Amino acid sequence: SDIIFHPWKKEDNGNQTRVILYTITLTNPLAPKTATVTETQTMYKASQESECYVIDAEVLTHDVPYHDYFYTINRYTLTRVARNKSRLRVSTELRYRKQPWGLVKSFIEKNFWSGLEDYFRHLESELTKTESTYLAEVHRQSPKEKVSKQSTVRRRKRAHTHLRVPHLEEVLSPVTTPTDEEVAHRIKHVAGSTQTRHIPEESPSGFHLQSVSRLLLVISFVLVLLVILNMMLFYKLWMLEYMTQTQTAWQGLRLQERLPQSQTEWAQLLESQQKYHDTELQKWREVIKSSVMLLDQVR
């Protein structure tokens, strides 16, 4: 919606450029409902009127997560194959302005491909409707017009077959093709081939659900690991406390078995109590030291 077409401008190198502004609707739950888009189209001078058009579209989507990290290059190659028939070939590439880290890059690429497939499925649907409308108009014509039209197609088809090859050899290579030697070979292959990229039947939302499920799985695993570590720490602290309480109760029971009857026994009792207190003090120091070490490990 809100489409604004700026006029074509001819560049010094012979190419023509124009800028298109529009708004798209997004279905990603992690993104806003709408986003503005700036699309810069470049029609190369190798394009031949009524024969072949090659247009590169640089697409910048604003108001989406990490929109300043990437942009899209779509190449549209429209080739005439008959009087009333053309072949449209689209190649695309995701380019980065800044290099994101692993998880963000995976998020960008999955959403990029799902959104792109949804966009071109919609384009295919609209072209199919246009084709159906055109065929319906052709069928409503009189039989004489159909016969004259078919004969014209047969006569002109041979002529265009000879004219098309030199024009196509001037067409630029696909987006990802780096060398000039592959240009002519690839364009000839495009003109005579109907190979297309296989699009899986999975819905675009499947990509988002898959990425979200993996992220939830990782978070769940980390939480379970933290719970296990906390339980182990609690168990060790509880065992230390239990051992100290047991030793204290057992020593108290020993002291209450029989009261001393003489001064010598009282002196021995006091000496044993002093040793007991020294031993308990040393044990508590070890308990505190062990607790501090466990806390440092948790950190």
TrEMBL record:
Domain VASt, first and last residues per copy: 1-135
GO term, biological process aspect, one: intracellular sterol transport
Ranges annotated as spanning the membrane: 215-235
UniProt KW keywords: Membrane, Transmembrane, Transmembrane helix
Gene Ontology CC entries for this record: endoplasmic reticulum membrane; endoplasmic reticulum-plasma membrane contact site; plasma membrane
Compositionally biased region (Basic and acidic residues): 138-148
UniProt key word Transmembrane helix: yes
GO MF entries: cholesterol binding; cholesterol transfer activity
Cell location: Membrane
Pfam families named among the record's database cross-references: VASt (PF16016)
InterPro entries in the record: Cholesterol_transport (IPR051482), VASt (IPR031968)
Region of interest (Disordered), residue spans: 138-159
Protein name, entry field: GRM1B protein
Species, as recorded: Ramphastos sulfuratus
